[in-house]
Amino acid sequence: MEAIRFEDLNLSDAVLRAVGDMGFEAASPIQAQAIPAQLEGHDMIGQAQTGTGKTAAFGIPLLQKIDPENKKLQAIVLLPTRELAIQVAEEIRRLAKFMHGIKVLPVYGGQDIVRQIRSLKDGVQVVIGTPGRVMDHMRRKTIRVDHVHTVVLDEADEMLNMGFLEDMETILSQLPSQRQTVMFSATMPPAIADIAKRFQTDPVMVRVVKKELTVPEVTQYYYEVKPKNKVEVLCRLLDLYSPKLSVVFCNTKKGVDELVQALQGRGYFAEGLHGDLKQEQRDRVMNGFRNGRTEILVATDVAARGIDVDDVEAVFNYDIPQDDEYYVHRIGRTGRAGRVGKAFSLVVGKEVYKLRDIQRYCKTKIIPQAIPSLDDITDIKVEKTLDQVREMLESNDLSDMVNIIEQKLMEEDYTALDLAAALLKMSMGEDNEDIIDNFETARSLDDLDSYGRGRYGRDGYGRDHYGRRDGGRSRRRGSVERAAVDYVVGDDMARLFVNIGRNQNVTPGDILGAIAGESGIPGRVVGSIDMYDGYTFVDVPRKYSDQVLGAMEHAKIKGKKVRIEEANGRDQSSRGRK
Ligand code: AMP
Fold first, then answer.
1. Which among 366, 233, 243 is positioned nearest to 309, based on CA atoms?
2. Looking at the chain, which terminus has fewer C-beta neighbours within 10 angstroms, N or C?
3. Is 326 exposed, middle or buried (0-12, 13-18, 19+ CB in 10 A)?
4. Closest approach atom of ligand 1 to CA 251
């Protein structure tokens, strides 16, 4: 695991300052490959998913090519959803923080077009948008593409999935032929491979090649948490398991510094380790950890590399690592020299999909756990305090203390029991506010595919909580060859086409109700329901697809006769053309 420094990637000072400011310590594996390929001017196909640092992997080279003096549009990033447009625009703005005169604008359907036109008139060099809206602006000439030298298709397979094929083709065919075309896609369905063939020139393929890794024998747990509760949950786990020594991993230097401060503020013996430390400070921190003065070492992946301490009892992934391989290296910090180790991962939102991939790749089991409640912590703390009391009673002469207490009891109006209770409470410290509001049992990573609806609910457009229409299901890894046969819907789900949609006044709920009601399959096993104006795609477990097709043959939805059939990849993309 060789770390590539941003300083070695031939980047401008402004970009280096920005990544430093963002706290990035080293380039992620996909960045280490993708940035040089793009800087050399090649067209590129990258296979990577969210959470790997993919946005900066195309954002950095793109920004390096923008001429701030030229106020014309120079780069377009196309992506499937409004959420992604906003997130990517934010990340690119952060990267451009020290580049003066660069304007980045997200444009997406659903936002007032007049406002967008006004912003575009200000001279925007980078547009980050959904294909439909970008095309709309091109038609209105509010986006002019004659100076565009870079186009990025982010989550190309997802755009295909959402019926944007024709829009992508139209946009690409209108761009200047002298340009760089970069594509990121988690899978490579035929229609996307075809776009690459038609619109790219000798693209370089970039993906992180996985090594065979031996996963150490470590019990691994994960907890679904809200960002604001991460510190609290970590503290509860530290209290509950009270590991003698533990290593906590953060993805950035900034994250390390902030967490160390928070932990020290709560009275933990924590120190941080990252690349900004001088050798001297590093030695001091490591010595403290080795001799047990520091119980919690908070570190970045790069900094933790040299840690050779055998009795680390627990590893915490405060942030989910950017690369599967990092995960294995991290948890390998514990369970050494034949000891039993534990690894705990905190996941926020869609990171749970990242963790699922890690579990698959590492062929390991990461067990969901409920966040320990305050009662659990109290029980443990009481137990620990009473142990100390017992030890004290056995090994000390307490007669002086007994005298003092006797005296007090005679003077004051309370009992020995009251006194003991008050002292116990004092020794345990103040309780924290309870964070387990609306707590639900965490889900097994294997069950994620059929999950989604129950927990996160869908909006009227079949998107889940994260604005993804498929709950992340299409985000499969695998070689291009395999991906070509394995269409975007997972092997275990079949995608059905229903010939009614929003224009017929039906809702995803009506379709779900009809399918479950007619066929008798449980509603919760139905996957995503992607509703468009004139038709709808529904994912059902493959084993039920014949049952559903049979039951729906003469069925009506909201009094309307419908046609329902299996949507295979090709049909689906040509339907996208309408
Ligand atoms: P992405 O895969 O683009 O969604 O990025 C996931 C997260 O990782 C974002 O919060 C980025 O800011 C962050 N990130 C990107 N590159 C790095 C890096 N080299 N080191 C640490 N964090 C990074």
1. 243
2. C
3. buried
4. 21
- Span from the CA of 534 to the centroid of ligand 1 (angstroms): 38
Q: Which residues pair with 541 in a beta bridge?
A: 493
Residues 6+ apart with CB under 8 A from 473: 449, 489, 490, 493, 527, 528, 539
Average pLDDT of span 513-518:
86
52 lines ligand 1 (CB under 6 A): yes
Give yes or no for residue 28 CB within 6 A of ligand 1: yes
Q: How many Cα atoms sit within 13 Å of 214 on the Cβ side?
A: 2
Atom of ligand 1 nearest to the CA of 49: 2
CA–CA dist 130, 113 (Å, integer): 13
Q: What is the pTM of this model?
A: 0.65
Instruction: Say if residues 362 and 327 touch (Cβ distance below 8 Å).
Output: yes
- By alpha-carbon position, which residue is closest to atom 17 of ligand 1? 53
Kindly state the DSSP code that residue 27 receives in the 8-state scheme: B
Question: Cα(500)–Cα(138) distance, rounded to whole angstroms?
Answer: 30
Distance of CA 81 to the CA centre of its chain: 16
For residue 91, report the distance from its CA to the centre of ligand 1, in Å. 9
What pLDDT sits at residue 453? 31
d(Cα 353, Cα 137) in Å, to the nearest integer?
34
User: Using alpha carbons only, what angle is made at residue 360 by residues 35 and 2, rounded to the nearest 5 degrees?
Assistant: 35
pLDDT in tens, 228-260: 899 999 999 998 888 999 999 999 999 999 999
**DSSP notation for 546-574:** HHHHHHTTT-EETTEE--EEE--HHHHHH
The rounded distance, in Å, linking the Cα atoms of 298 and 234 is 12
Q: How far apart are CA 97 and CA 60, in angstroms?
A: 12
pLDDT at 441 over 90: no
